[in-house]
Amino acid sequence: MTHTRKRIAMLLISLVSLLAMAISASAQSSASGTLTPGSIICVGPFQADGTSYHQTSVELSGQVTNNVIANPKWSIWRSPDDTTYTKIFATHAFGITQDILYSQDPQYFPGYFLGCLNNDTSVTIDFVISIGPGQY
């Protein structure tokens, strides 16, 4: 009986761990802080299947928050399996809100998405960045 209880407990722990990983991959991810010139930060992954509620679009949102003139590079990276990522969007801007929609780019869904900020400027920047479900 004790051996059976241990096996059931191990099974429950495994299932809870798998559920936690699935939830974290499909939840919005965000960060804020300071980036020196040449530094990069990525948030995510956000998982979207293209069909489920809150998974038909992916939104990268970010802003430089200190009083500098800087247009760093914002990008969205996508992976089919959360291992190898390919850049699917990049632009230089002070602030950004960019959506990738299943209805316009179905080839990216299902997938895992990272939002990245590359401070390729010559000044230190403060920032906020997030990636998660889009508005569509």
CATH superfamily: Mitogen Ypm
Rg, alpha carbons:
18 Å
Look up the CATH topology: Jelly Rolls
Compute the number of strand runs: 8
Quickly give the structural class.
Answer: alpha+beta
Shape: globular
CATH C-level category: Mainly Beta
* Number of structurally distinct domains: 1
**Widest β-sheet, arrangement of strands:** 1-8-3-6
List keywords for this structure.
globular, 136 residues, Jelly Rolls, four-stranded antiparallel beta sheet, alpha+beta
Quick take:
The protein has one domain: Jelly Rolls (Sandwich), CATH 2.60.120.510. 18% of the residues lie in helices and 46% in strands. It is built from 1 helix and 8 strands, in the order αββββββββ.
Protein architecture, described:
This protein has one domain (26-133): Mitogen Ypm (Jelly Rolls), CATH 2.60.120.510. The protein is globular, with a radius of gyration of 18 Å. It has a four-stranded antiparallel beta sheet, with no helix packed on it. Strands 2-7-4-5 form a four-stranded antiparallel beta sheet, with no helix packed on it. The protein is 18% helix and 46% strand. With 136 residues, the chain is of the alpha+beta class. The longest helix has 24 residues, at 2-25.
Ordered list of secondary-structure elements with their pairings:
Layout (H helix, E strand, L loop, with lengths): L1 H24 L3 E7 L4 E9 L8 E8 L8 E7 L6 E7 L2 E7 L9 E8 L6 E9 L3
Antiparallel strand pairs: 1-8, 2-7, 3-6, 3-8, 4-5, 4-7
